[in-house]
Amino acid sequence: MTREDTTVWLNGRLIPWREATVPILSHALSRGSAFFDLFGVHVGPEGPVAFRMDRHLERFEKSAALLEMPLPRTREEIVAAVKEVVAANQLGRGIVKLVAYWGEEAIINLVLDTPLDLAIFPIADSPELALDVATPITACLSRWRKLHPQTVPVEAKACANYLNGYLARKDARDRGFDIGIMLDTDGNLAEGSTEALFIVEGGVLKVPPLGGVLSSITRLSVIEAAPSAGLEVREEVIGEQRLHVADELFCVHTGIKVHPVRRFEDRSFEAPGPVTRKMMALMDDIISFRDERFAHWFQPLF
């Protein structure tokens, strides 16, 4: 499936990918008034299924509430639209991305009272996405700090918030690393540009608490699944120094459920380490439908 032959759901209609555009002076582009969510699509025994779509749509609705930008469709209507666009494109392994935004031009007005536009993109796996390819990566401490939650709602998946992530990723790439890890304004571990971070200390998984980071669904999934593999998880404030002495380090995101870090700054790790390897195996069993305990995490799209 290429973009040239992909159709997109936009405000109730299926249109060609290349026609899903906005004016340069649209409020979304010039003012940053857009938010999104995305989730994985897997090929199940009976057809395509979504990984935790219920949780992702719950977060999509929370983003709308935090930003005071009401969604133009109900959850039931969005689910039906997702199924429609997945079927129309015969999507296999891939992701579905939902974007809510003000597509109208706005030269002066900052606050609009018109309905949002809603687009749903089916995106097939590709070498660019490299879904589920957990090649160990390198990470550094970013010179940029995570946005403070009293400046913008950081738990909203707002497009504008990702300028913070862009700067952290660019800083890392310029220094020869794959990803940059941001601290919060108090100097404690926050997250990566598009990743939640876990450290391993003494066999225990540890992750920063919510409040100053995005409410990652993959993060949640690791926290909920880990005990079934005999792993303890603690949500706690993690100071910068603990990154330098942790036993293992890994990140998680929609595309790769557990992504081992082989180097942090000038320190190398066994990657994956024993705890990370155990977590990788568990999540691989889950998304490969080999662990019935988590079958309820998948919603049919057929």
Descriptive overview:
It is a single chain. This protein is α+β, with helices and mostly antiparallel strands. The protein has 2 domains: 3-124, D-amino Acid Aminotransferase, Chain A, domain 1; 137-287, Alpha-Beta Barrel (D-amino Acid Aminotransferase, Chain A, domain 2). Helices cover 25% and strands 26% of the residues. It contains 7 helices and 16 strands. The strands form 2 sheets. Strands 7, 8, 9, 10, 11, 12, 13, 14 and 15 form a 9-stranded mixed beta sheet that branches. Strand 11 (204-207), helix 5 and strand 12 form a beta-alpha-beta unit.
Describe the secondary structure blueprint for this structure:
Layout: E1 7-10, E2 13-16, H1 27-31, E3 34-43, E4 48-51, H2 53-67, H3 75-89, E5 94-101, E6 117-124, E7 137-141, H4 162-174, E8 179-183, E9 189-191, E10 196-201, E11 204-207, H5 217-225, E12 233-235, H6 240-245, E13 248-252, E14 259-264, E15 267-268, H7 274-287, E16 298-300
Parallel strand pairs: 7-8, 7-14, 11-12
Antiparallel strand pairs: 1-2, 1-6, 3-4, 3-5, 4-16, 5-6, 8-9, 10-11, 10-13, 13-14, 14-15
